[in-house]
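call fold target=Ribose ABC transporter substrate-binding protein
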Amino acid sequence: MNRRLFLCSAASGLLALSGRSPAGQAPSIALILKSMKNEFFVLMAEGARRHHARRTADYTLTVDGVQEETDTRGQEVLIHKALTRRADVLIIVPADSTTMVPPLLKAMAAGVLVINMDNKLDDRTLAGAGVNIPFVGPSNFMGARSVAEYVARQLKPGSKAGLIEGAPGSINAKARSDGFREALRAADIAVAGMRWGYWDTLRGKQAALELIDAAPGLAALLCGNDNMAIGAAQAVQSRNLTGKILIGGYDNIPAIRPLLASRKVIATADQHPELQAAYAIDLALNAVRQRLLQPDMPSIVQTPVQLVTKA
């Protein structure tokens, strides 16, 4: 299908959106998340369900997720299931910022309103397709920068830090690393290296060990999520370097809080996954109520993010 034909088909599907649920019937919202092994997405799912529990008469909700952070194929299957169930709105945290765009375009062509949450879809890919998919989430750059600024204040200028980044193809991963880098550069802290941790504790530990070995005298490790920060803390402890290498994370999941209390991890960022879910659902309900089409939706709905430390 050529681009012009696709867009015409998508527009036709969007025009049919308001008639997808019969008049008087509550709209159906499908929420598709990333790894349900990650406490962050468990909290996001719980936030969505609490929102629905308060407004059961206003909409129906299904919550699905894959097991691995990068399982794009699994998310494609879940998108197909949402279309089969004739969902009115699809809210997704994409496993990849580029790869997931084509199946979402198919959902739009089928008349489903699509909202992107937490991990932003690639702007260039969306622009190339000529579509607007609103993003609901925080500034990952600003949240990560606040973590790195806090860590940098504990270090001497000229110290060395390592970065443990989430996964290739993730806008979140890049934005957080960019925030880390800006704060380190401003504090005259050198980036000694970067490794992929793929959002996972074990892989985060391995990444940390590689960075420690590659950069003797490393003073800090900044991690793109708390799972990797937990792995980094395990790596640091295994080398008897606890307290000598400072660790920053991101997400403020429950599992990180004992490490914050003990200062094995000194900072993280809370981007309130439950609020992200509530904001996205409210955006969806407002769009359905006002009969908005995909191009009429706001491009970005900002949600809060804040620095969290022991203090």
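return ok
The radius of gyration is 21 Å. The chain has a mean pLDDT of 92.
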